[in-house]
Amino acid sequence: MKRTLPVVLLSSLMSVAIAGGAISAAEAASPSAKPGNSAALDAAIAGSTRDPRNVARDQYRHPRETLTFFGVSPQQTVIEITPGAGWYSEILAPYLKDGGHYVAAVPDDAIAGQPQYRYDLNKTLRGKFAGNAAVYGTPDVRVFDPKAPNFGPAGSADTVLTFRNAHNWVSDGTAEAYFKAFHDVLKPGGTLGVVDHRAKPGADLEAQKKSGYLTEALVIQLAQGAGFVLEEKSEINANAKDTTDHPNGVWTLPPVNRHDAADDAKYKAIGESDRMTLRFRKAK
Questions:
Q1: For 77, which DSSP code?
Q2: Rounded to 5, what percent of the chain is helix, strand, coil?
Q3: Which of 4-8, 27-31, 164-168 has the lowest mean pLDDT?
């Protein structure tokens, strides 16, 4: 018979572990945290080649706890969707370079008429990897059509990760196509990890598009519509200070800081956005 610890005892043990420094508070918020490969992940996070500006944001993005919650291991093929300038690439590529495979899926530069920032970010990402095989290995920068996304051969990836992107797809009306493409590229039993800015429950769709905050219900609906099963939620990236009702949406907050200089201290005190962290599974 399977034995479980009483909730009171488990809570007491967790409190002792946190107080003693054995685990972080963010890890404690993740009941399915998998400590395997933690030394390799810690080494990647502590890497001296990470941009100091990116390291400064660890307090908001919790990379160790987040990747552990998603179950990322060094032997996997991991596709990160639109990694931007490479915040997570700086961690994932070194972590996967010896036994796994890191794929950075980016909008195809050959497609004209896209926002200029996409071309600029792709250039920055490729520049980061160029000539740095000792650090990053040989990551695959894989292009796709944002209007008809395809991320590679069917059933070829262990994990697909997307950080702070889904709100863009909802705004563009392409979210369903993205989630279907995630499902297609994953192996049976594969993981989809989603982090995004979290709106208050019941927020109007148009308000979500304008603010950059999405409800968990909408993201779950999109994933389930593509065939995924919601396995677990985590509060790893929650921020109770974020009221989500800022004049310029989520972009009011760091790191964008689209606000008057006089309000800098106010928004710095809030920090980065309140974020959902959702783990989905493709059926075996």
A1: E
A2: 40, 20, 40
A3: 4-8
Q: Contact 159/132 with Cβ under 8 angstroms?
A: no
CA pair distance 122, 109, nearest whole angstrom = 8
| 3-state SS, residue 213 | coil
Q: What's the confidence (pLDDT) of residue 20? A: 44
Give the CATH fold of the 31-282 domain.
Rossmann fold (3.40.50)
Measured in whole angstroms, how far is the alpha carbon of residue 257 from the centre of its chain? 20
Q: How many CB atoms lie within 10 A of CB 41?
A: 22
Contact between 199 and 214 under an 8 Å Cβ cutoff? The reply is yes
Tokens of 154: 């069917």
The answer to whether 179 and 226 are in contact (CB under 8 A) is yes
Crossing angle, helix 175-185 and helix 216-225, to 10 degrees? 50
Q: Which of 162, 196, 155, 99 is nearest to 283 (CA)?
A: 155
214: exposed, middle or buried (Cβ count in 10 Å: 0-12, 13-18, 19+): buried
Average pLDDT over residues 200-206: 98
Pairing outcome for strands 275-282 and 186-197: antiparallel
What does the domain layout of the chain look like in residue ranges? Answer: 1-30, 31-282
Q: H or E stretch including 268?
A: helix 264-270
- Note the residue count of the chain: 284
Q: How far, in Å, CA of 200 to CA of 39, rounded?
A: 36
Short-list 138, 48, 126, CA closest to 102: 138
Instruction: Reply yes or no: is the peptide bond before residue 115 cis, omega within 30 of 0.
Output: no
pLDDT digits (tens, 9 = 90+) for 93-114: 999 999 999 999 999 999 999 9
Contact 134/96 with Cβ under 8 angstroms? no
* pLDDT tens per residue, range 42-72: 999 999 999 999 999 999 999 999 999 999 9
- What does the CA dihedral 132, 136, 142, 143 come to, rounded to 10 degrees? -50
